[in-house]
Design brief:
About 65% of the residues lie in helices and about 0% in strands. It has one domain (about 1-215, about 330-485). The two termini are about 40 Å apart. Helix 1 (about 1-25) runs antiparallel to helix 7 and helix 16 (about 380-405) crosses helix 17. The chain is mainly α and about 475 residues long. It is built from 18 helices and 4 strands. The protein is globular. The protein has a two-stranded antiparallel sheet. Strands 2-3 form a two-stranded antiparallel ribbon.
Length: about 475
């Protein structure tokens, strides 16, 4: 019965992702045009070696299908309404608008060009499959975005498997994690970007680490899978680095504990893990160093965005070191992690009441999860510690970036608001967060009544799903989306 229920939740996640991915037009404010440009380049076998302007191949899709509804309001157009989509106009009607639109997009530099290749290679292959299925025009464009449908469903299943390892005795944790992941209104997952695959690879890596915690003698197969998961997480998004470091330390500690009893097996497992993880990561670092000037590819991106590194002495005057600044950083980051970062007609798709709930409940519940770890022992405690530390390490990583840089003329982050609060950068720790969050709720409420934690998780999931639907529902009226093709 339980596996069937979880599969049903995977289906719910898939349907939700499909519906909203189809409702949002192209190209969203979270750099979807840049990610699409990279997907096009990879589909043509062109791995970027520099920060170029958007390619002509990408512009051929961006110009006719891009919607102005993200960054503009209808009052700016004649008659107070958005113009008819270019792809619905005749060539004669659209000629002047095409020229203006292409001129507006042609000068954009793709500052995501140094991003690792895994997502773009996968999306390019998925797009090729759409061509084999003879999809064209807007259907083919949305087909590439619909890759998210399968990836989000996979995240739900991975979360369930991880929760089953962490606490096999309690159904509230196992089903609660799957339920939360199935309905979490993260609208970044309705857009074409590498954060969805980041959630899959980060979840897979956490699942492997949970298995390490649950076995006294990890084998070569588990070491192989863990190393490949770590490599995949890095080759999807460098923001997953904190999780990879925590995973590596956990594997090293497990092998060290086994070293005296079975030295050959311990050294073999660690060697396989290190080789499978390090070789792909090192290869991409070398590529980045050769073509972009440093191992992360960040130096030219910083130049494009106008960022600079601050002297170390200036780090400590950052507002994040005040109670008010820390509150801003935490609340904005966690809220965008829950509900996403899309804007619509220049306004954030958010609701202050829901944002306050997300930030406060996450703080309270994660603290309760940390307290609830003390009486636990064994594998489940180790896995929960990894889940908590992974999420907190990723938060600290973004805090460090907020402190380190002078953001110059950049709009977000900026000198006036110097905080990395893009929740999509935490996508790699989505599964560990869900496990820690649901465990925190369970620990708080389980002694009152055994069924109460699951009921509360259902209520939280219902609130999150309902608020997400109400917040995002304006996009369904867009003439630019898949439903109006």
């Amino acid at each position: 019965m339980e596996p069937f229920l979880v599969l049903l939740l995977c289906l719910v996640a898939a349907v939700r992702t499909f519906t909203f991915s189809a409702a949002f037009p192209f190209f969203s404010n979270i750099d979807e045009d840049l990610h699409f440009d990279l997907t096009m380049r990879y589909s043509l076998g062109q791995v970027p070696r520099t920060f170029d302007l958007l390619s002509e191949q990408a512009l051929a899709w961006i110009v006719p299908y891009a919607s102005p509804e993200f960054l503009q309001t209808p009052e700016r157009f004649p008659g107070g309404k958005f113009p008819t989509p270019i792809w619905k106009q005749s060539p004669e009607q659209a000629m002047a608008e095409i020229a203006v639109t292409k001129a507006a997009w042609s000068g954009e530099i793709n500052f995501e060009s140094s991003q690792p290749p895994l997502y773009y290679a996968l999306a390019a292959s998925w797009g090729r499959l759409g061509e084999v299925l003879r999809l064209t025009g807007i259907d083919l464009l949305y087909w590439v975005r619909f890759l998210n449908v399968a990836l989000v469903a996979l995240v739900v299943w991975i979360g369930y498997l991880a929760a089953r390892i962490v606490d096999p005795a309690h159904v509230d944790l196992r089903v609660g994690v799957a339920l939360l992941l199935a309905v979490m209104p993260h609208n970044v997952f309705y857009s074409l970007n590498n954060d969805v695959l980041s959630a899959v690879c980060g979840g897979a890596l956490f699942l492997c680490i949970a298995r390490w915690s649950g076995t006294a003698s990890p084998g070569i197969g588990l070491a192989l899978l863990t190393g490949l998961a770590a490599a995949a997480a890095y080759l999807t998004k460098i923001a997953n680095l904190p999780l990879i470091i925590i995973a590596s330390l956990t594997v090293g500690a497990a092998c060290l504990a086994q070293l005296r009893a079975r030295p050959g097996r311990a050294l073999g497992a660690f060697g396989i893990f290190a080789l499978c993880g390090a070789i792909p990561i090192a290869a991409w670092m070398v590529w980045s160093k050769i073509h972009f000037g440093d191992v992360t590819g960040s130096l030219p991106k910083m130049a494009v965005l106008g960022w600079g590194r601050k002297p170390f002495a200036q780090w400590w005057i950052h507002p994040i070191f005040s109670a008010h600044g820390l509150s801003i950083f935490w609340s904005e980051l966690v809220a965008s992690f829950w509900r996403g970062e899309m804007i619509w007609q220049t306004r954030s798709l958010s609701w202050p009441g829901a944002d306050r709930f997300y930030s406060l409940s996450s703080l309270v519940v994660l603290c309760s999860a940390a307290i609830g770890l003390w009486p636990r022992t064994g594998a489940s405690k180790s896995a929960l510690i990894v889940a908590l530390i992974s999420f907190l390490a990723s938060i600290c990583f973004l805090a460090l970036l907020s402190i380190e840089f002078d953001f110059g003329p950049c709009i977000n982050p900026s000198r006036e608001h110097p905080y990395f609060t893009s929740g999509r950068l935490l996508s790699g720790v989505l599964v560990p967060f869900a496990v820690a969050y649901v465990y925190g709720v369970a620990w708080l409420l389980r002694r009152i009544a055994w069924l109460l934690p699951l009921l509360v998780i259902v209520a939280i999931a219902a609130f999150a799903a309902t608020s997400g639907i109400l917040i995002d529902q304006p996009v369904f009226a867009s003439e630019h989306n898949w439903f109006h093709r």
